[in-house]
Amino acid sequence: TEDGEKKQRWFLCALSAGFDAIVNERANNMRNPKGPSRYIIALMIELAKLKRIAYKLTLDGKVIETEGSLVSLGNGISLGGGMNITPDAKLDDGLLDVLIVKPLSRVAFLRIFPRVFKGEHLSDPRVTVQRAKKVRIEADGVSAYGDGERIGPLPIDVEVVPGAVRVLAPNPGPNSIHTA
Prior knowledge:
Blueprint: E1 14-18, H1 19-29, H2 37-48, E2 53-59, E3 62-68, E4 70-74, E5 96-101, H3 106-112, E6 127-132, E7 134-138, E8 143-146, E9 149-153, E10 156-159, E11 166-168, E12 177-179
Antiparallel strand pairs: 1-4, 1-8, 2-3, 2-7, 4-5, 5-6, 7-10, 8-9, 11-12
Helix pairs in contact: 1-2
């Protein structure tokens, strides 16, 4: 917060801090139209304004300074209507999958975007994933969204809390209860 007070917020599956969060922010601030079409309109407006974001990431103490289109942290595999943003993430491994998408042109973005629904975007060399337990994301003018809900402006510190939630998940083995 502006007065330096730290607030604790929780998310389970994914945290977005980049283009996807900027689109979400715009859509939430639009009065019209109502319903899902406002997200499509917000996407088109922000795609026209697509710009590089200068990030400073700290992953388990290792600092990475990079430019990108977005950074997303996945504890689960998907966000926003079935986009498999971090398809290899596991709820119960105690780590966040840190997805970094390097700066993209509008055309490149439009080519990669449909591949996210099947988790096939990871084969693009401009998309990388690293794993970490503790992550700090810094960037000017970007807010973070956790599981689709606004968390607040960056910087933000995120840490996995093992065992915080019990999750029922399909598992062919005898134990189908996992602790995330």
